[in-house]
Amino acid sequence: MNQLIRCKNCDQVFMKSPFDQYPEYELGLDRPPETFQNTEKDDFQDFLIHHQGHELENLKIIDDSYASEKAYSEPVKTSFFKATNGKEKFVIKKFRERIDEPLKYQLISGDYSLKCVAVEIQSENISKQLERELNPRPSQEKIDAFLKLYGAIAEGVDIKDLERSPEESYHPLEVYHKIDDTRLMFLLRNCRNIFKGQEYLAMEEFIHRHKDDGVLLLKASYKIRITQLAKTRKRATPTPLPFEKEKILGQK
Ligand SMILES: [Zn+2]
Asked: Ligand 1 centre and the CA of 106: distance in Å?
């Protein structure tokens, strides 16, 4: 359904995406679908008029390239994704400043990458879960010692070594990872210094229950690093291309 169109002369993009443009429509409020579609159509006609005689091309959005500083559910935000025309790669900035504004798409020159800035344990969730599941509940001192031990393990981790958990994250820049067997062994071995007897056994079970999809997943936080490039790319000249162009729907 989504069609991303780039004007090669102006380096502007238009996203034909009926479900993306207006948040009111997504939420099923006020605007009936016909009015909405007409508005979308009008916007696209405006784009075509504005770029009349220019060379337009379809861009394909690159899978899994989405990045944003804010949660998926946050309607007012700036996010980025990458797209390609088969030869060149582009970065598209998608944003809106107010909830009642349509989304805007801007082609920016440059690139971005995600950098892991922190690997943390879910201290609060671990504490809560221990209180909920362990009976009798370990002393606060022991819980703190466990968090300290696990925190130290997380600190030394290179996140690239760890498997990503399939658990969905609500935030595009937070990814959960499972600890590997070597670190698991290290954790269990050191837990023997904190917990004894039955309490140790209960902890061991707790760790196995929560290491793959529970509170023991490590949270990796990322930051978007944008590398802005100087605009050196030449403006497209209207020389005919050697390959057959894809027709852009609605273009006259
Ligand atoms: Zn143009």
From this structure: 13
Cα 225 to middle of ligand 1, angstroms: 29
Domain boundaries, the chain: 3-109, 116-222
Q: Secondary structure of 10-58 in the HEC alphabet? A: CCEEEEECCCCCCHHHHCCCCCCHHHHHHHHHHHHHHHHHHCCCCCEEE
Reading the chain (252 residues) residue by residue, the pLDDT tens digits are 678 999 999 999 999 866 544 444 444 445 455 555 556 667 888 999 999 999 999 999 998 888 998 888 888 999 999 999 999 889 999 999 898 888 899 998 778 998 999 999 999 999 999 999 999 999 999 999 999 999 999 998 999 999 998 777 888 899 999 999 999 999 999 999 999 999 999 999 999 999 998 999 999 999 998 887 655 555 544 544 444 455 666 655
In angstroms, what CA-CA distances link 90 with 59, 65, 172, 229?
9, 11, 20, 11
How far away, in angstroms, is 83 Cα from ligand 1 center?
18
